[in-house]
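Z., the sequence and structure:
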Amino acid sequence: MNMEEKSCRVVLMFPWLAHGHVSPFFELARWLCKERKDMVIYICSTPVNLQPVRNLLQLTRQGDRGDDAHNGYDDHDENEGSRIRLVELHLPSLPGLPPHLHTTKFLPPDLMPTLKCAFDLSEPEFSNLLDTLQPDLLIYDFLQPWAPLAAQRRGIPAFHFMTSAAAQTSFFCHYSYFAEEEFPFSAVRLGTESRRYTEMLDRSANGISDRDRLLKSFKYSSQFIAIKTFRYIESKYIDYMSFLTGKEVVPVGPLVPDNYDHLVDAEQLNRVTEWLSKKERRSVVFVSFGTEYFMSEQQMEQMASGLELSGANFIWVVRFPKEDKEADDERMTKPNRATELPPGFMDRNRPEQGLVLDGWAPQRSILAHPSLGAFLTHCGWSSLMEAMQSGAPMIALPLHIDQPLNAKLMVALGVAIEIQQQGFGNFEGNEVARCIKQVLHSEIGHGVRKKVEEMAEVMRQKSDHHKIQELVQKMEQLCNKDQQGESNTLKRMVAN
């Protein structure tokens, strides 16, 4: 290590084992490296989670470094990306959980407790990484409250980075502390579904509920909690979250990534943009439900029915679980995957009207295309940020986890309409078609488009730069604070 690198602020990031968490951590790392030219950031996760990040770093680095083998972590030093380094965490072997399933992507739902258990059992290896890397600071996620304790035992300050909305986070915290009191913000209430919705936090793995993991992760965060949002859309929820957690909540911006579609799969991008270029302005509905949700047969049938009944041009991204390594590694665009769609769907819908993509889609490019008329989305937080920045009107179909509250927030902001369901995940094709027609052809849809275009302008004007500057200042304060005071705080936390 040279003298210049010794002066760098060394940060270790530790996201949960999901693409929807690793990606925001990576974007935060990029912004921090832009702000601080002497900062080196290590991102720690399992090899299968790091591979997409590694591929992206290799694609965006200047020059061809070849296929040199790596010994646990990448250590390049040419440009901004060279100061983002990847550290592999190897989970212990557990029955039914091979290394290619050390991620939530394509993970069968019944294996989620096993994955969390394996994650907990990786604490000794993570502690060894802390000893090896000796970071100045740890930034961690919500399911591993043992991580900040391991860091603080070594005199390393740590803070929590929340990749979800402040609305849904404060909602969960509220019902954890005030179970019998109604959430104070009516716009994002769930009515009779509220209790059932929050009960999912009681799911446990390794004897620890998700509720306890979340609340302890907040408790162990040094001084503040960072969150992927901005005050223009969530000011009151940020303040309420701060009240509930007893910590300052620091919004770091939407952290929308640059458009890397041309680097990820130029052939697929060209195919999609060529198809879009033949469509009328604002005539296409883009349907995507993220990287980790797999529709049931009934849901697939109703969505297919809704698209057909709407008569709209569409791009539909479908995904099906992969359970063996060979299937997981192969390209997900093979034509035979379409046989898992409802029988006859492909025959009834000409390629000129509908484009079905199995696997990856150039989402950023689709959302920004003039032919895009609406985005039918599951309401994952990162996808919503991308849609708002692109000025894409949304049709909300929340299915699980944080999505119902995200959908309520988007409707309250006026940038989306919501498909009515009989309980989460129970929707009908007629309702899907009605909402598509409403956004594409009605005055209501015109109002949604106007609102989301206004939001896009706000996001363009309000740069993430100043939010990142504030975060860097707070990180410096943590790294320079009296470690004895932190040690005493830790002892009290462990005692409680």
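The chain is about 45% helix and 15% strand. The CA atoms of residues 120 and 440 lie 47 Å apart.

Let me know what you think.
H.
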